[in-house]
Design brief:
about 240 residues; mainly alpha; Rossmann fold
Length: about 240
Amino acid sequence: HEPSSSAPMSEDAVEKKNKVSATDAAKKAARKAARKEARKAERKAERKAERKAEERKAEHTSQQSLARKAKQDAAREVETSGVPAHDSSGKMSPAETSAAPNIATPSVTFSTFEQTPFATAVRVALTDAGFSEPTPIQAQAWPVAISGKDLIAVAKTGSGKTLAFLLPIFHQLSLKKRACSAAGGLPAPRGLVLSPTRELASQIHVEAVHFGAELGIGSAIVYGGTPLQPQRKALSSGFSARGV
């Protein structure tokens, strides 16, 4: 017999070859898995982008629908009552005002702080705060509110609505005897302001504390999302003129 052309591999060589093959297979499997994950992530990103596009389209369609409905409602309101709807600024043209017989125009307005019945300390505080004269909403709302009549006032943000209702409240409270709670004879809340958001409530509270202090009238703020005990304590024990 002729000798074999190659000698049989040793056990170490066979083991080394098997390890190399296993390593190559693992690398190949890892590359395949990475490509699969990349394709999966790409498809996921595409689906997410499609959903966002659909949501934006739906939101735009909804806004258009709401705008059309608001326009239709305003038109129906004019047809049925003859009272035109306000625009976003809360103002109406002279022609619209004359066509709205159910809207009362104040017969008296305050063009200066000196014309108001507010305490001198309050008028000084207004001047110190940088106000030179009543804003249009204040000039018209103050006489009505001070007289004790119900009032609905509409004006854009930053027009002075907060002081338009706060100062008449403080004026009325300063003229009356302090009410006392049934238990302990402590001051009870005598005025209530409702706000749709916590942020707006905080803004109103800042003004209430500042101007109420001039008349010795305290203020407390109550809203959700915070511990109840401090707020309950503020309401049950009365508040200082500096507010709570």
